[in-house]
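Schema walkthrough. Field components (list of strings):
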Amino acid sequence: MDPLVQLSESVSGSSGPVCEPGIAPMLETRELSVTYGSRRALSGVSLAVPRHQILAIVGPSGCGKSTFLNSLNRLTDLTPNCRVEGSIRVDNEEILNADCDPMTLRRRVGMVFQKPNPFPLSICRNLAIPLKEHGCAKSDMDSIIEEAISDVGLWDEVKDRLNAPALSLSGGQQQRLCIARALALRPEVMLFDEPCSALDPFSINVVEQLIASLRERVTIVIVTHNLAQARRIADQAAVFWQRDGVGTVIESGPATLVFGAPQDPEAAAYLSGHCC
Amino acid sequence: MTRLRSAKIDRSVAVVCWVSAAAVCATFGCLLIEIIRAGYAEVSWEYLTSRPLDAGRAGGIGTVLVSTVLVLLVCLAVSIPVGVGAATWLSEFTTPGSRRARFVTGCVNLLASVPSIIFGLFGMVFFSQMLNLGISILSGGLTLACMVLPIVIQTTYSGLRSAAVELRLGAAALGLSRTSTLWYLLFPAATNGVVAGLLLSLGRAMAETAALLFTSGYATRMPESLLDSGRTLSVHIYDLAINVSGAESRAYASAFVLLILLLLVNLSTSMLAERWLRTRQTA
Amino acid sequence: MSPISLRLSILSRRTVDLIAGRWFCATAVLAASIVLLILVFVVREASSALSDIGVVRFLTDDTWRPTAGAKASYGIIPMLAGSLFVTSGAVIVAGVPGVLSALLIRFYAPPFLATIHRRVIELLAGVPSVVFGFWGLVVLVPIINRLHPPGQSLLAGILILSLMILPTIALTAEAALRGVPASYSSAAAALGMGRWATIWNVSLPVARRGILAGFLLAATRAIGETMAVVMVCGNIVQVPDSLFAPVRTVTANIAMEMGDAQAEHRSALFLTGLALMVLVALFLIAAGGPRRSEVS
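Field assembly_structure (string):
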């Protein structure tokens, strides 16, 4: 068995009884609220994602979708005065506890941003630095890097120039490199924050198919503005909305229900495109 | 009517601008030409390597150059680590705008406004007397380090800040520690800022005289350790011009050497700035 | 790679983060403490003069003769006057060509010449004060001497200092003009205003604050300047009665006397240093806060 997978299981196994896949959700939030200083950005978000499924989050701009995503790997820690309340459980382990190490958490919960953000270093170093940081042995490094780059379908394009600067790649290639960089750490959950909105149409297609195929290995939360894309790849869906200046969830559940028969009138209007 | 008048004023202002700029440049040109004309003739290899004799009326500036280099080395060896560290703390380890950050920034900005003669007084009391370093190259270098610290902090800080937010977020999202993020990503991005700070500090320190009069002193012999007194090139010029009669030509020569050295430092600074700008555009 | 090695590496990473944070914090504290140390030490050294001689004598004694034993006098008014005359004169003399240089760079010169002029001014800013002083001594002072002896004079100090602070004024004014949003001047152009009308009615008023701040920063530099004034001002303690009279500034006094000053005399010199810091602080407050270090 792969050492990193083994490791993550031993870490999660230590925190409580192992649940059967498909029954206990991989990722679960309860009454999650986020405030910046005195301004509440998000309130009362309760969502659950079963293992190996894709949760698509849609909704108009400024309704707290990115804030929600950032709280899932505690990237909110970096914002001064940002307070996260409620409960977030990753594989049954509460991550808002003080004894949860955010650096280890962020290895388990990978993230890909809207704008591709490879480090201004070589392609190879982009993957090697995080791996080294998380204690990967030198001897395993090359094979893990090759595997991760192959997983995102980039290997044939870059295998001859692993030492070229990552910024010399095209936008779509950069984004796939960022996905590979996160995948190399063997995450259990992957967060995508509008991963396609800065890409050209061809790359959008490639990255979208890549994300859909990743569901076999990781649990995915994706924020997207592209409703058609959400319909194509989501197993679960949630519609975020801004009520009285605070973001919240107005509709959530299996994607077929959310997109097929939304209960909330605003959500229905938004999903049918008759809004904003 | 008014348009015509306005156009007339515009033309006259243009003329006045050109004339005043030409006057400024001409004055500066006079200064440069005078120093170069009178200094160049005196400078030789012999002058650059031998020690001053007869209070500087004869001999060269060899030992003076050695003292200058030593003072500058002490200055940079202290100001660069401290300045880079303080800038890193301000940029990465504290919240910008917090009370602590504002206090440190305020103190550093105040430090940048302190007149150099005050640095001299402080260096004399604190380094020479209280820390018992005496009138020495070490005291002088440390005094200059205090003086150039704001420059190093400022340039390093803007270098660190020039690293994009996405870089930090990306690193944090991969679970990189602060130290690793600094080491692998932020320090490389800030290198230009640090080098700019180094060069600017070098120029400022090399030009300084007042802060050194009572800290590193006037000795002309070859310094044997950092605890020996040694005069820098700028102190040498001052001494020759004011205290030694009949050494004018020697003062010209020293001023010429100092100007050339500073010109080299300034040129490398602007070359660096240009290269920096170019790489930013291609990136 | 085993789970245990990973645990260990995370622990050590946290320790490294902690140690690095402490070190960076320590350097920041050190950097911040220097200016406080300077203040503490200057005040400490000046305290015996403050208590034994008293501020009143510093302000009322009519001259500066600290080594005259029982008849010693400690009047710093003539030197403060010298500093203020030299500084204000230099700001007045450098102000006009400084702002004109900025206008030239910003509006009147073709880009190529504007860059060259900027470079020249930046080079001028890099000339050490001791070289300015030396040049003033060997070139400027003899010229003034021919007009009106002795040559070493308030005028020589003003001219040399104005050359030294001109870059500060020109570069801050240029930056302030550059900071005027392009939409303002294009709006003015759209209203059919000519170049000068735009500069006079739009650019200069908008940039006024920045330009004035530049003047005050230049003044702090001038009043703190030591070497150039020591070399060209003549250093006679008196309230100057004409531009051609020699003067001694506060800074020059410290530079000349500190070398062999003892006891009361020494403490009195520190007190003049303190007075200088107070003046600089007043300029800074007037300029609206301490200056950023002179790096763009």
